[in-house]
Amino acid sequence: MTQLDDLTRHLLIGVLVIATFAVLPVFITQRYLLGEVIVFFIWAMVAMNWNLLMGHAGVFSLAQMLFFAVGAYGMAMGVTFTGMSVWVAIPIAAVSSALLALIIGMACLRLTGAYVALLTYAIAEMIHVLIITDTECFTLVRNNCQQLFGGSTGFSRFDDFGFRPLLKKHWILGNYYTVLAAFGLTIFGVIVIIHGRLGLAFRAIRDNVGYASSRGIDRKKYQVVAFALSALLTGLAGGVYAAHYRFAGPSLFEFSTLMFILAMVVVGGLGSTWGPLIGTGIMMIVVEFSKEMGDARNLVLGLALIIFVVVMPKGLVHLASNAWRKVSHDRQETKADS
After folding, report:
1. Of 21, 90, 213, 324, which one is least surrounded by beta carbons within 10 A?
2. Could you tell me the membrane topology recorded for this protein (predicted)?
């Protein structure tokens, strides 16, 4: 199968996935369930982009939730302080995430492996600390003191997508299809990157840096590009998250959230195309059934991550792919014998 055929096949699968979710509200009308699907869209966007960076470009970064938070905070700050439209603030916030990623990438990607993970996590934690220790009043919002970066309480009750006055009690449908549009943009963007020339360069660097360099592929240049593209779409996810929930706060930096997204990528299949979506669905189900466990829920996430890393390091997609190939091989042998 040629590269073009592979790209076309995955784009057609993407169209089918988006079409399926587009008709889902016809069958699911409960606001809670539609809200859960919206959450799935948002976390799947983050997981797909982390998989692009770590699974395909080979950059073990722990700054993904930082870029998500920049998208959320950027959107919230734009709307709160300048009064700009949500529809303008979200793309600006996404671009801000990409610009921050360029700066961090040029600094961190001089290193490799675990050093990149440690440095990116340290930068994310440093920004987290700066935010929660911001106590100085920047301006008054609804007669309440608002810090520049939100402080320990963050930003809340700002404008959302604006569907409440238009759609009344059906406003969730407006949010649903808006986030679905961002989800679709992410799917097609990631597919084009992964199965295009950039994806080939990313995987060449991931698999054999020496060989890739001998073919004229600059490791640092291409990994910085992967860093920025991943951050752009992750920032978009953060922006739509903030607009949907009308909230952006320090909880976005929590380590448990980072582990939750990482578990999605690992369970689904690191380095695959559709693994992050499958992993997101499975981990959301796990979290839903463990809600009453309180803090012990993090233990469940940790155990799931450990089990898959040890038993199935390539995730469920790889396992299903191997099973399908075995079934196909057995069928071919049966036909040959007959």
Report:
1. 324
2. Multi-pass membrane protein
